[in-house]
Every structure is written in C-alpha cells, then in structure tokens.
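To fix ideas, we give here one paired sequence and structure record:
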Amino acid sequence: MNEKGGLGRALRRMMGVVPPSGDRPRGGGESVLMNATRLRIFQVLCNRPCSHVRAISREVGVAPPSVLWHLEKLLGRGLVRRQSIGNRAVYYPSDMLEAGDVELLAFIESGHRGRAIKTVLDHPGISQGELVRLSGANGHALGALAGKGLMQMVKDGRHRRYYPATLLRQKQDHYEHRARRFRQSLLSRLADEGLAPETVRYDRHHLEVRVTLGTSEENLLLLCNPFSLEARMLNRE
C-alpha cells in the first residue's frame, strides 16, 4: 500500500501508529499510547497491576488475542513488564513494583482474594460466613490468604473470625516512597509518548492526570501505590 496518501496515514493513525502532527513523542519515533485501546490497557495495569491477559480482556472489552498484541507494543516500548507466575504471565507498569513482590500481588489479584482482603479491612472480626457472602471468596481462598499472612483467622467458639494482617500495612508503608517516584515516572512516560500530561491532583494513592489523545482530552486516574488495597478496590467500583 502506498502510505504517502492521506488514507494510508489516517488508517495508521487510527491504529495508534502515527500520532497527530505536533504530538509526536519526544525524541521522535512512534507513540504507542496515542491509541485509545492501548491507553486503556495501560490504565488498567496501573490500577490492577499483575493482571493476566484474560482479566485485562474482560476489563477493556477487547478479545484476548488483540489484548496480547497491544501488550507486545507496550512491552516493546518499555512501558510495562511481564513475569511468569506458574503457568500464567502477568503484566504490570515498569518502575511500579519490586520484582520480589510481583508474585504476592498476582496472588492477591487472582479471583475474589482482593475483595476478601478489602472486606476484612472494612469489617475487622467478620465471621467466615459473612465474609464469604460479601466477598464471593470460598473457604479455601480464605485459608490460602491466611496461610500467606494476608489476613488473620481466629477461632471464636463455633465461628472463625478474620482480622487485617500487618503484612499488607507494612507493604503499603514500604511503597510510599516508591509511589512518589513512580508518579514522576508516569508523568515523564506520558510526556515522552506525546500525550502532554497535566496533573489534576494527586494523593498518597493516586495520580489524576489530563492527557491529550489526538484532538480530545481525557482524565486518567492512576494508582501509584500497588499495595493500597482500599484504593485498588475503589477503582473497580
């Protein structure tokens, strides 16, 4: 196909290969985030780091093969990283996580475990029956969470009650400083991709940023501390 014509260039722009004039990434090259689907995938990975392809597919409403194709573009640009956990690959934004914590976060992300932890944080001392009802997690999942030190189980007569564990609070505190650096990294990477980011607000958990995507603007709410479980659950609601 002759790409000198406007149609070829317009088609490539729709695919996210050619950014609009004046919006090329710093240092030249191609912008991979100047594409609504890839930008959405990147946003999902910020808010739900260590997600696998099918989970991302459900979140963005795009078929798994297409999600994988977009992920390869993000990997090639160095915007995300991939790590194998068992027989499944998970993805997360570059600079967000220490390698040793990827498996733990992937474990939390799987199934209803994250919601179970959030429920215990909201209702310390909750009974197992009520926890199962509110979170959707079964007894096996709760036992696995307790076994990894992600919540505490105490027998109270005929009942089992669950309480928050110190491990998650320690991890959240540990990542406070890294979250500040990750926020700056995010702004730099969005600028490098030609999205002209403008900070709307930020706190210890999130960065809200306005970006320019072609001729439109969009606000992104991005999680900066991956172990802020309260914030992660809020992003899903």
Summary: The chain is about 50% helix and 20% strand. The chain has two domains: 6-103+169-236, 111-164.
